[in-house]
Specification:
By secondary structure, the protein is an alpha+beta fold. It is 30% helix and 20% strand. The chain has helices spanning 21-35, 44-51, 109-124, 138-146; strands at residues 11-15, 58-63, 76-84, 91-100, 129-131. Strand 3 (76-84) and strand 4 form a beta hairpin.
Length: 162
């Protein structure tokens, strides 16, 4: 697994103990609110309730404690799970969520978390990783492409009149 020394100086990574459901929902809501301001995302709590388990590991990133020995809130997270490749039928690692707070971006945290994801997938024997990224999230797309991800499919939606 990734050593915390591989993160940029001033940060540490640790695995969730499994009691962080509310915090995970909060980070998911931050992600979606940045991309879709003004929308409501209460349903994300249901998503976490349905899918977060011991089989879907979660890692947090915190900046090191300050001089007052206060433990700061996490500044980033990575939530992993499994999916099935619909072409080959193989189980593979899937990134449910990668989020870095805006004020901590472009410091190598996202890249370090992606390395953590790859390490986890390799340890399980997976031959690939997958993720979903919104079309308008160009910074995330650039990160993923720089790490070797390539598009495999396009998810299309059509809004229907009621």
């Amino acid at each position: 697994m990734l050593d915390t020394a591989d993160l940029c100086p001033g940060y540490l990574i640790y695995r969730s103990t499994g009691v962080d459901r509310a915090l995970l929902v909060k980070f998911m809501q931050r992600t979606y609110c940045e991309l879709f301001p003004g929308e409501g995302f209460d349903h994300l709590a249901y998503t976490v309730e349905q899918y977060f388990s011991g089989d879907t590991p979660l890692w947090w990133v915190r900046s090191h404690t300050d001089a007052n020995l206060r433990i700061p809130d996490p500044v980033a997270c990575l939530w992993m799970g499994s999916a099935v490749d619909q072409v080959r039928g193989d189980r593979h690692a899937h990134i449910f969520l990668l989020y870095v707070s805006p004020e901590h971006r472009r410091r190598g945290i996202g890249t370090a978390l992606m390395r953590q994801a790859e390490d986890w997938a390799r340890l399980r024997g997976d031959r690939q990783m997958g993720l979903h990224v919104f079309c308008q999230n160009q910074p995330a797309q650039r990160l993923y492409e720089s790490l070797g991800f390539v598009p495999q499919s396009i998810w299309m939606v059509k809004l229907l009149d009621r």
